[in-house]
Amino acid sequence: MNSNKVIWITGASSGIGRALALNYAQNYPDDRVVVSSRSRASLEETFKNNPNVFCYAADVTDQTSMQQVASTIEQNFGRLDIVFVNAGICEYIDNYPVDMASVDRVFDTNVKGAIHSVNVALPLLERVSNPRIVAVGSQVVFAPFPRAGLYAASKIAMTAFFEALRLDVKRQNIAVSIVYPGFVDTPASPDKSFPRPFLLSPEDAASRIIDGVNRGRRDIIFPKRLYWLLKLKYLTKLWEFIVLPEDIKK
Predict the structure, then answer these.
(1) Is residue 1 part of a domain?
(2) Mean pLDDT across 88-93
(3) What are phi and psi of 83, to 5 degrees?
(4) In 3D, which of 231, 193, 195, 98 has the Cα closest to residue 154?
């Protein structure tokens, strides 16, 4: 499995980001894995037994701190082969009118943070052959979920950005993969008030993502059962009885 790549994963302190980093560290020992999150201490505790993982503090909502990580990657490695734009948050709408502070937090992280990540990573990706940007989105873009309108709006905006970016960087030979996971048991999705069909562990999600990246897939969608169920929702009322919480069904 030797590949000798430099990989940067944002939002790596928990959930899918953490699982991605550990998978690469354990299964691709020749890769150098750069991980970032707002807390360097939590990263160092998580990856203390992985000498090929390099931990840095950076907040995706702050392009200056992201640029500092990119500059460190340039100084230490001189290149970047893959960036996982993974950092994200989810806040549910419990009451209307919508709390605009919540809007700012979600869009600053999920949309502006993604753009900051791309801005600082692109100059490094342009230096290598077969570079790739991997954006972690969500299957929430395929169908509405109760209370998730704000999160869905941010992920739809993020997805649109990366679909356009894919066209813009094609001439530079930079590939863009968009990941559409279903329900994953992470700290970013703690609400258990409604059923989460086909729930996956972060480790399972990470394995599927890395397999898709290795295969060069543009769109990495899993689990497919949920995807097709969402696609069929407009043709049947079945979805109402699967997803909606009890208080909404009443």
Answers:
(1) no
(2) 95
(3) -120, 130
(4) 98
pLDDT digits 0-9 by tens, 157-200: 999 999 999 999 999 999 999 999 999 998 766 566 667 788 99
CATH number of the domain within which 227 lies: 3.40.50.720
Host H or E run for residue 116:
helix 113-125
- Tokens representing 117 are 């990540």
Q: Is 151 a catalytic residue?
A: yes
Residue 150 lies inside a defined structural domain of this protein: yes
- 134 part of a folded domain: yes
Q: How many domains does the chain have?
A: 1
CA-to-CA dists, residue 142 to 121, 193, 210, 230, angstroms: 28, 21, 22, 6
Res. 247 pLDDT band, cuts 50 70 90: very low
Rounded Cα–Cα distance for residues 136 and 158 (Å): 9
Residue 142 lies in a domain: yes
Helix, strand, or coil (residue 205) = helix
What phi and psi, each to the nearest 5 degrees, are found at residue 134?
-120, 115
Q: Which residue has the tokens 């082969």?
A: 81
Is-cis flag, bond preceding 223, omega within 30? yes
* Cα–Cα distance, 181 to 17 (Å, whole number): 13
Q: Which member of 151, 180, 227, 234 is catalytic?
A: 151
C-alpha–C-alpha distance, residues 21 and 50, integer Å? 10
- Domain assignment of residue 233, given as a range: 6-249
Torsion sign, CA atoms 168, 169, 173, 178: negative
The pTM assigned to this predicted structure is 0.91
Higher pLDDT pick, 245 / 171: 171
Strands 219-222 and 82-85: unpaired
User: Is 203:210 a contact under the CB 8 Å cutoff?
Assistant: no
